[in-house]
Structure prediction request, 559 residues.
Amino acid sequence: MLHVTNVTKRYGGKTVVDDVEFTLHETGCVALIGPNGAGKTTIMRMLTNSIKRTSGTFYLFGEKILDIRPFIGYLPQQPVFYPWMTAHSFLTHCAKLYRIPHSVANERMNELLATVDLYDVKHEQIRTYSGGMKQRLGIAQALFHRPKILLLDEPVSALDPLGRKQMLSLMMQLKSEMSILFSTHILNDAEQVSDAMILLQDGAVVEAGTMNDLREKYATAAIELHFSYDAGMYERKLQTAPFVKNTSLQENMLTVVVTDVELARQWILHICNTENWPLTTFAIKEASLEEMFMKVVERCNG
Amino acid sequence: MQWMTLFKKEMHEKWHNKMVIWFPLLFILLMIMDPLTYYFLPELMEVVGGVPDGAIFELPELTATEVIFISLEQMSFLGTITIALVTMGTIAGERKSGLLEMMLTKPIRSLHFITSKWILYVLLIVGAFFIGLLSSVYYVAILYEQLPHTAILQIFFFYSTWLIFVLSISLFYNSFIRTPGVVFACTIATLACLNLLNQLFGHILTMFPNQLSHHLEATLLTGTISRELIGTASVTTICSLLLVLLAAFLFEKSELI
Prediction:
């Protein structure tokens, strides 16, 4: 639906975002991942036009568009409100700006305030709200006009575990209705909700694709073994096996990276049985996003 | 429609921070201070003491027009600073706090945004000035003499254009500077430069905004509105409008972070 190409931001001679390109589909969730200072927020701000891009073209449904603001809902990293307003008066203000008729606005507001769990405090001044409440009100104002694209800048980083869980499940629910682009530096969150990801480093995209594609590409066939004792001794034994690429030991947990998972499983389980190894856990590990991330970063750093 | 929404928001904000109340009170204070102190100056000096025995002060007898003009001089100085202070964060503050980053993803036209703020401050300043002027006139009437109604209206009408001009300068700097303190400094520096220009070239630039009170005084003394006064007021108003348009343009072009 939205295709963004060649997006660059320079401050003087310093390139903060370098030739970024990506596509958002009508539904689904895309995560913008990168360490702090990778340019995630800058990209978000260029999409919302709150900072001007040095270069870059946006295409919406194949047509070139200068400003995508009419189609987006945006939650900044730290949403700020007029402290003297209430959630109710703020959303009413927003509804008027979007020219949403009063009756529609009222119904939608009550529904939305219930969803973000602010219904009971809707007539209290925003200055009395906690950080989490402001974040939820931020989500409500971003969704109020039913945008096609939802941009969320670090929506969960500042939340407590419960708030985080609520936000992620809300995102799970929303991504079937609209396109979500969200930035995060917490890989676990990205892994939970997103269908695709864009990995940024120093303002440039270093890897991008759907989660499935990336998992396949960076799949490490690793087997995790827990022993009740003497893991070191078994490590040395396993190292002699032909299919083992490398091993690493942490206390009594042994991670074995192998070339052929099937062969390795048969061999390890067989030897455990015959030699009576004190094995407590046997697990075949799927590549986590974190490992993927580390690999990409390592590759980039040469 | 959208403009009204923005305007009402500004109105509510000024109501919530009680500016509607304290701003006119401040203007009343500024305007009545001088007529009162001048009238009671001999008594004040007696009370404070320090005057040697036998010393006699011959204070000039002031006319109502002269007293009201001392009041206006106070406005030109403290009133101007007050306007610059209360308006310095009207956009810059919202920009700095991050409010604009979120609000301006919503369909808000720059011109509406700027003019909604401008009109509200115009009403507030002009209103406060009117109340301040009336209280000053009231004390002048009690302590000195009654000022003619036409003179009051002339002062109100023409002097307001100067106050609006100060507001417009502040709004102009607000449109692209993100620190309220810097906006304030720029506004005051601009006014100081204009004042300097006026002193250097005032004899050529007869319709320079800073000439306004000079022409106004002449008009009040002669009783007929001079062409220079109308010209200066027009120039000042046109400058204000241009500054507002320029502010909307710069606001559109500037980054919101």
User: Anything to note?
Assistant: Chain A has ten helices and 14 strands. The CA atoms of residues 81 and 116 of chain A lie 16 Å apart. Chain A has a mean pLDDT of 86. The two ends of chain A are 35 Å apart (CA to CA).
